[in-house]
Design brief:
The complex is a heterodimer of chains A (281) and B (325).
Chain A lengths: L3 H4 L1 H24 L8 H4 L2 H11 L14 E4 L5 H11 L4 H4 L31 H14 L7 E6 L6 H12 L5 E7 L2 E2 L2 E2 H4 L5 H7 L3 E6 L3 H7 L8 E6 L22 H13 L2
Parallel strand pairs in A: 1-2, 2-3, 3-7, 6-7
Antiparallel strand pairs in A: 4-5
Chain B lengths: L5 H21 L1 H4 L3 E5 L9 H6 L4 E3 L4 H13 L3 E7 H7 L1 H10 L5 E7 L15 H6 L5 E3 L4 H11 L6 E6 L20 E4 L4 E5 L3 H14 L4 E5 L2 E3 L3 H10 L2 E9 L4 H9 L8 E6 L9 H7 L4 H15 L1
Helix pairs in contact in B: 1-8, 4-6, 9-13
Classes of the chains: A alpha/beta (281), B alpha/beta (325).
Chain lengths: 281, 325
């Protein structure tokens, strides 16, 4: 049997380039927030996931943003907004000019996503633990419409899984047999106050979801080929993809550093990151 | 043929507001084919057993999970469905407060959230189920309509009005079983349009919910004492009928608000917030439940304990009137 990894080589190269561009856009967005700062850590941890979703997995069309058969995406961990917006730029929902208004006083790109269907933002988020219920309702609504083409993708954080509402919705999705629903856990192991293990231990994440009636897949959330495989052949149950990631991925001093959950980037740091990109584009 | 027959109105009254909701629901798919009803393990309490049998695909029971219920209902709304969601009023307002605020308020998704057993309706179950803060919470949420019917006839009217109402709304259903009848025949109901039930030049009572009935009785008691007391049914607390309120300020020498809700943040608060913008308006007496948790008791007992029976309302008004007249 041919491995998916070999079939994905060309795709993976394109995705690597997309991920690099997205990271750079995250630095640019972050820089122009100035002293306000931005959520770097939890944005950088989900760059590869967002690249794979928007480039290779989801069916969306910026020319027809309300196309009924589109796939629906919900960023339940709203603080991952910078990676979301960077992906929306890559596929053409928002412009580079839009990105440079991030967190400004008159922007539509808030610090947490604000519902804007024409710009590819299905729902607002920011209060953790609410996205999966919206996903359950959306998946159920698609079924009731007889739409078997569209799927619903809900991206959550591992810290977010401390919210009880997540597990209400997890039970509900399995109960109603919503195989058109896919949850992705950006398991970067860090939350605001430190390691998730220390704050509220959520070890056995995949097993937890399995015990709620989901099928679980665990992948390296920065390995594009593994991610592509994980989204193949989604089965007869709701699926959770537990993506092991590194918070702050791609910037040495941000990686696994709780101080970069939300922080400000200096011009010098930005210049250094830009220089590194020029050397290794 | 109108469903507002004397026989139906009598039946609804016997069922109480929750059972009446289920009866009203039966006709909704014919009015709006996109209608779905979600409930958090209160199918039967919501009187929806017949609806579930007639429309099994339109009734979604999510179990005891109110936060998930509101989010799920909002997701269905976003796919174009017209969704009612039912739970106890306390849980609608407090347990699912954040999904209500974010999904219904901020995103404006048009879920019709039905708070059952509001006020003292299930008072024997104690303070966890006695809902006296729900109006305060719901009306503070931008975009939210808040409707509190005076009786079971008005419950049917409100449900029918909401089925094609685009925005998010909270429908507060409570009262006793059987529910006293305020509207014994068909009438015109419009969200946001208060109804003057009784004229009277000295005092106007602006009431909402089941205590509209008590207020009408109180007005009659006061009439016997020579006071001319009008009654306005403010069935929609948000958007508030400010046009009617201006008429009330112009005509009455004392404004009285009556509600089966905390005196903090309910109808009394809404009227006071509006009235204080104008010079030379009549004083206001806010009649409601003082700031405490009443102990468990049946409906009539709790009305009496909190001063909301007709004779108690009349006494409070009479006492305040003596300082005005």
């Amino acid at each position: 049997m041919m491995t998916h990894t070999s079939t994905h080589i060309a795709t993976v190269q394109a995705l690597e380039s997309m991920a690099r561009e997205m990271r750079h856009d995250i630095y640019r967005m972050g820089l122009q927030t100035g002293l306000n700062g931005a959520h770097f850590g939890g944005g950088l941890s989900l760059v590869e996931i967002m690249a794979v979703l928007y480039q290779s997995v989801m069916r969306v069309n910026p020319a027809q943003p309300r196309w009924p058969e589109r796939d629906r995406f919900i960023l339940s961990k709203g603080h991952g907004a910078m990676a979301y917006y960077a992906a929306l730029k890559q596929v053409g929902f928002v412009t580079d000019e839009d990105l440079m208004t991030f967190k400004g006083n008159h922007t539509f790109l808030y610090g947490h996503p604000s519902m804007n269907p024409d710009k590819g933002i299905e729902f607002s988020s920011g209060s953790l633990g609410l996205g999966l219920a919206l996903g359950v309702g959306t998946a159920m609504g698609l079924r009731k419409r007889g739409n078997h083409a569209s799927r619903v993708f809900v991206l959550m954080g591992d810290g977010e899984c401390g919210e009880g509402s997540v597990w209400e919705s997890a039970a509900s999705a399995a109960h109603f047999g919503l195989s058109n629903l896919v949850a992705i856990i950006d398991k970067n192991g860090l939350q605001y106050d430190g390691p998730t293990k220390d704050v509220l231990n959520m070890d056995g994440m995949a097993e937890k979801w399995e015990s709620f009636g989901w099928q679980a897949r665990t992948v390296d959330g920065h390995n594009l080929a593994e991610l592509l495989d994980a989204f193949d052949n989604l089965g007869g149950k709701p699926t959770v993809i537990v993506a092991n990631t590194v918070k702050g991925k791609g910037v040495s001093y941000m990686e696994n550093n709780p101080a970069w959950h939300h922080n400000r980037l200096t011009q010098a740091q930005f210049d250094e990151l830009t220089a590194a990109k020029a050397v290794n584009p | 043929m109108s469903i507002f027959t004397r026989a139906n109105i009598r039946t609804w009254s016997m069922l109480g507001s929750a059972g009446t909701f289920g009866q009203a629901a039966m006709g909704l798919p014919a009015i709006n084919p996109e209608t779905l009803i979600v409930t958090a393990d209160l199918r039967n309490f919501s009187g929806l057993d017949r609806f579930a049998a007639a429309h099994p695909d339109r009734l979604i029971n999510v179990g005891i999970a109110e936060q998930n219920m509101v989010g799920l209902a909002a997701g269905l709304c976003n796919e174009g469905f017209n969704v009612f969601a039912t739970t106890y009023a306390t849980f609608a307002a407090a347990r699912s407060a954040d999904p209500v605020r974010v999904n219904m308020g901020y995103m404006g998704l048009g879920v019709k959230l039905v708070g059952l057993g509001a006020g003292f309706s299930v008072g024997v179950l104690g303070p966890t189920h006695i809902s006296l803060e729900d109006i305060a919470f719901m009306r503070a949420i931008p975009n939210m309509a808040v409707i509190s019917p005076a009786d079971c006839t008005e419950t049917v009217k409100a449900v029918q009005a909401l089925v094609n109402y685009p925005g998010p709304a909270y429908l507060r259903l409570g009262g006793n079983v059987p529910h006293p009848v305020v509207f014994a025949e068909d009438y015109e109901f419009c969200i946001g349009k208060a109804i003057r039930l009784r004229g009277g030049e000295d005092i106007t009572i602006v009431a909402t919910g089941p205590v509209v009935y008590e207020s009408l009785q109180a007005a009659k008691l006061l009439e016997a004492l020579g006071l001319r007391v009008g009654v306005v049914n403010m069935h929609t607390i948000k958007p508030l009928d400010t046009e009617m309120l201006r008429e009330v300020y112009a005509s009455a020498r004392l404004v009285v608000t009556v509600e089966e809700h905390s005196i903090l943040g309910g109808l009394g608060g809404a009227v006071a917030e509006h009235k204080c913008q104008f010079a030379a308006t009549p004083p206001q007496l806010i009649i409601g439940v003082r700031d405490y948790f009443p102990h468990a008791g049946d409906y009539r007992h709790l009305l009496s304990e909190t001063g909301l029976t007709a004779p108690q309302i009349a006494t409070q008004i009479q006492s305040r009137w003596s300082t005005v007249a």
